[in-house]
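Ticket #4471: structure output looks truncated?

Reporter: J.K.
Steps to reproduce: submitted the chain below (643 residues) through the standard prediction queue, then opened the result file.
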Amino acid sequence: MQTNPVSLPQAKESLQKVFGFDEFLAGQQAVVERLLAGRSALAIFPTGGGKSLCYQLPSLLFEGLTLVISPLIALMKDQLDFLQSRGLPAARLDSSLDRERTLSVYENLAAGRIRLLYISPERLNNERFLQSLRRWKIALLAVDEAHCISQWGHNFRPDYLKIARLAKDLGIGRVLALTATATPPVARDVAAAFGIAPDDVVNTGFYRPNLKLAVTACSSQQRDALLLARLKARAPGPAIVYVTLQKTSEELAELLRAEGYPARAYHAGMEAADREAVQNAFMASDRMIVPATIAFGMGIDKRDIRYVYHYNLPKSLESYSQEVGRAGRDGAESICEMFASADDVVVLENFSYGDTPTAEAVDGLVRDVLGRGDQFDLSAYDLSSQYDVRPLVVKTLLTYLELDGAIRATGPFYAQLRFQPQRKPEEIFPRFDQPRAEFLRKVFGQARKGRIWHTLDVDQASAALREPRERIVAAMNYLEEQGDLIVEAAGLREGYKRVGMPPDLGAVTRSLAERFERREQHDIDQTHRVLEYAEGNGCLTRHLLAYFGEQRGDCGHCARCLGAPGKPLPPPTHRLPDQSDAQVLDALRRERHAALQTPRQMARFLCGLSSPATTRAKLRAHAAFGRLESTPFHAVLKFVENS
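Returned output as attached by the reporter:
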């Protein structure tokens, strides 16, 4: 790519005039310089370190669209409010927009009035969006939370691997990957995926001198009293209390309110409007406390969070670093304390076990997929239901097959399009020349007409009319953008090409099953690294930084440096299966549930871990579901296998 004609002095002028900043923060100028030179870059900045400016500023300077991919809708909304308040031409496309606002965004994109567009990774599964994307000139692709691309990152998302491939397919020469949590191996994975040179990795370090880290070893029964004691002893201030389970956030909020504190729960099981209300109240408050699962805080730019408490153990040091990083973004002193109980290990480990598919499921799914021919399509949802594997795990398995060269994705598409005419056909067709008008008449003629909605089987119409499905989809997409139709897609399917049939399918399925087992062990190891951190005697800050590859001496301000010694956590209090559990197991087997055929399925059920099969069979309401949720999964599995 040719060097962009924009100079660094011009960038600094925009920094001052548009954003109101006199100087770049650490690392920002280095990233912007690389982008101005036409190179891709990886920015590894701590939470609150100013990653977003690294693409917001260039979006004003480059000719073309800056496309930002982020899984955080809250971040999109917050940043968009900021940008629009300064008159910057930015927009977002996400599931929360109504039809009118969505059409307005597309209209402005087509007219070139938008310079920066936020989307979620899932938007790349939208066939109609991808067609639009190919019409736009993309000057910069920014990928937030880029650690998700690495299968060894703390939040691996298969959809992220498609981003790197899409960037190559679209010929996007300038990519900016951003993350606040990347170990050296994860950083190498991200850089390799996007072709980022080692010299273009900008890592400012993770050290935040205003964060006072503390760990208190305790039993699970002691945590309520410890939290209340801390709140009473410390000055009021906005606080997040991170928990693992949704019910814990509700119970803790009730406890805090009973003690006179302004507290509200937040978790993914709440209605979207209720979650937004809690978030807005927290943003406006100078003393509100939110007991929350990890869904809270992602992308929320509240700069005066004074306290972050971990009521439960975080699942990894990456998660912990990201969560404590939400405190003190204004630079003022903030306290981050973990109430470390070994009782939490069982719950965290059981989550990992719940995601691991059985060897039988892997074998059946792989043979199914590779037996569909040289060109095929599938529904991840259908496969999930058929083989009792969680949808995300199905996507991961398909990604592994791609990485191993067995299949190649040809792109997502929808089996059907439903459309609702907003104008009569005689008002639509005359706007087009005769061949195009005739084409549209034929497409409309292929639709099954209902009272309000018409349904079009796109592949069937393509075959009947001998027209490419891409042309049909593009036409419907265009008519929607013009306000002629309301269009809804249904039946998402993924297209694939079989690159080659492996000579030994048994070896392939065994290898994939082992890969999932390694991932399971990796996740469990991550939890034990949290335990090592909690029990260690040395400087907490130094320990955490070393995990991310940063060498630094003792901080002098964490709890360990100030004299609080590390000590072993009290032993866990979980129980092992007994004779009464054996009787329940016998009764379950006599009920002959199709969803509980293998030992692993039964163990997951007893541990309270749902699966597609148990959900479909409505077994979550069964009296035995979760009977052994506080028992280690491996002990439950052994109990099931030996009983």
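Triage note (M.O.): checked the attachment and the full token line is present. The mean pLDDT is 90.
Status: closed, working as intended.
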